[in-house]
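User: Reviewer 2 asked us to show a designed sequence for the structure in our supplementary figure. I'm pasting the structure tokens here. Could you produce the per-position amino acids so we can include them in the response letter?
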């Protein structure tokens, strides 16, 4: 059995034993015991029903499916596209520059096609379904829309910026930064300046910034991507996979590179900053973020 299978088995055992599976670990191979002992499921316990492929595929950003769809013939392309969400269809037809002729599918037909896509694209990667992930405050990110994850990245970039400008002896430059930020981001920067988020991955070189608002936004997003990856470097690999697949392939690959780099030995402060932001977004009254 691979790791995904053992974890899924443990999740089901957790459910069967009503949250007390550890006494039964002694019957498993020693290396599997060591891996599973650190697992903590959510307070609701692990689900007893394995999610369908459609639940997984329809949450994947369309850019990850482009390689699979680009080689499909016209009729097959339209058939398979008809199983996807409206957002995925719109994104793929634009990305691949192809037209789709919608085909009405029964629920059974749709699930059948999505299962074929799942087997082709995901199954061999041994990804743990989101509902079977071990307990983590960062699992909440999986309930965010893509736009919220993008906003989360931008705010992480602001946390990076705060480290650099906190001790910057150029009041005019700091004033210019504040002038370029929307009110919510400005307030968050002020909070970071007053707090202790003093871990930075690399210099912004903000003293070389020319004052252009768009350039600052791009720089913040780039730094936020790096900080997101570093903040996730201690998390379960399947959680990282699910978060990255909410985003386009370009951003996700960049995040994954920083996950693998493990740039900071003590990532506790980075994780704390990310968790605080996740909680902040959860408390916002609207699911649609203010960008």
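Assistant: Here is a per-position design you can include in the supplement:
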């Amino acid at each position: 059995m691979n790791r995904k299978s053992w974890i899924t088995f443990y999740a089901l055992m957790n459910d069967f034993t009503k949250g007390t599976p550890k006494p039964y670990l002694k019957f498993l191979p020693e290396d599997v015991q060591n891996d599973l002992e650190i697992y903590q499921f959510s307070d609701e316990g692990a689900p007893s029903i394995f999610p369908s492929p459609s639940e997984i595929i329809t949450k994947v950003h369309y850019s990850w499916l482009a390689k699979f769809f680009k080689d499909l013939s016209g009729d097959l392309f339209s058939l398979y596209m008809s199983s996807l969400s409206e957002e995925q269809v719109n994104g793929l037809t634009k990305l691949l520059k192809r037209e789709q002729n919608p085909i009405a599918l029964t629920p059974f037909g749709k699930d059948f096609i999505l299962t074929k896509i799942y087997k082709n694209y995901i199954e061999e990667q041994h990804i743990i379904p989101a509902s079977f992930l071990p307990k983590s405050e960062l699992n909440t990110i999986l309930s965010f829309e893509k736009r919220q994850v993008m906003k989360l990245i931008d705010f992480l970039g602001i946390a990076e910026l705060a480290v650099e400008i906190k001790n910057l002896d150029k009041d005019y430059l700091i004033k210019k930064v504040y002038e370029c930020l929307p009110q919510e981001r400005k307030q968050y920067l002020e909070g970071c300046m007053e707090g202790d988020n003093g871990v930075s991955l690399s210099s912004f070189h903000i003293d070389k910034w020319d004052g252009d608002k768009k350039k600052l936004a791009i720089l913040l997003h780039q730094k936020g991507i790096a900080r997101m990856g570093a903040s996730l470097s201690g998390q379960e690999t399947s959680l990282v996979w699910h978060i990255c697949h909410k985003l386009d392939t370009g951003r996700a690959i960049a995040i994954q590179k920083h996950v693998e780099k493990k740039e900071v030995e003590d990532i506790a402060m980075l994780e704390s900053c990310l968790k605080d932001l996740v909680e902040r977004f959860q408390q916002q009254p609207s699911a649609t973020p203010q960008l």
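For the response letter, you might also mention the following. The CA atoms of residues 130 and 270 lie 23 Å apart. Residues 286-291 have pLDDT under 50 and may be disordered.
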